[in-house]
Amino acid sequence: MIPAARPSLVNAVPAMPRDDIASRAVPFDYSFRFRLDGKVRSVSTLTISVEASFTAVSIGYGVVPEVSPVIFGPSPTPVILLAAPPAPPPPGSRIRDIRLGDLFDALEAALPSTPDIPKDMPALEAALRNGIKLNADFAALALQGNGNAVLDPASLSKLFEVVSPPAGDVQFLYALFDDGSGREFQNDPLLNIAGLGSPDGRRPFRYFARPITFAPLATIRMEIAQLTDFRGELHVSLHGYKVLGPAGAPATPRDRPQRRRGR
């Protein structure tokens, strides 16, 4: 006697209703912002929106230096012409003739009009921490003849600039917490280069080993501790998505069943 065929397990399992998470998920980012001013420790928090949970897929950061480029330059020392032209060039009109003290005086005169110099240190010190360089628009002209080219006062006044600090100079420790559940996402604060990468584009963000889902109204806390004297703004972003509406809800209003109106 031939035994009856067993029912297929696939057919035995009832079909489950398919959730439309893919159609209800929208890309979304949450961001932290820190003021880098030399403080050892800074804390920032954000609250997830009540409309939906948030799933973080990756994390990245960027920095904005405090000091913007400041264009400045010395003035040539005026001379009294005692002889008929051609007269020698005024002292300080060649790049070889510029003294360090002349640069300090010119930089101090240019800094009061710069609003983003830190207020807790002398303006000259804050600018010189990052260094100065030749203005690219006048560098070729000033270096002609091995620095013996005579420059007019207009070119001299724009010959130098204060450079912004390299973003790669910033180093800090960071730690991430879910205050609602009490979860910590590291056993010890992480170094930004080891955990996030460098801000010069080499691994500008990293993926989490597994996406992290935060419930609506959850509070995410981030703590950082500066390791270098870098001044500016630090932006840290959590990249991910949020799922709108409950499971099984239509993805868009046009998908909702329309009620028939009675005649």
Structure description:
By secondary structure, the protein is α+β, with helices and mostly antiparallel strands. The protein has 2 domains: 18-66 and 168-246, Jelly Rolls (Sandwich), CATH 2.60.120; 70-76 and 90-162, no CATH class. It contains 7 helices and 12 strands. Strands 2, 7, 8, 9 and 11 form a 5-stranded antiparallel beta sheet that branches. Strands 1-12-3-10 form a 4-stranded antiparallel beta sheet. The radius of gyration is 31 Å and the shape is elongated.
Tell me the CATH superfamily of the largest domain. Nucleoplasmin core domain
Let me know the number of strands: 12
CATH architecture assignment name of the largest domain: Sandwich
Question: For the record, what CATH class of the largest domain applies?
Answer: Mainly Beta
Beta content comes to 25-35%
What is CATH's topology name of the largest domain?
A: Jelly Rolls
- What is the helical fraction, as a range of percent? 10-25%
Whole-number mean pLDDT: 77
What is the SS-derived class? alpha+beta
Shape: elongated
Main features:
single chain, 263 residues, alpha+beta, Jelly Rolls, 2 domains, four-stranded antiparallel sheet, 15% helix, elongated
Blueprint of the fold:
Blueprint (H helix, E strand, L loop, with lengths): L8 H4 L8 H4 E13 L3 E7 L6 E12 L4 E3 L27 H11 L12 H6 L3 E3 L1 H7 L10 H4 L3 E3 L9 E7 L4 E2 L5 E2 H4 L9 E10 L4 E8 L4 E13 L20
Antiparallel strand pairs: 1-12, 2-11, 3-10, 3-12, 4-6, 5-6, 7-8, 7-9, 7-11
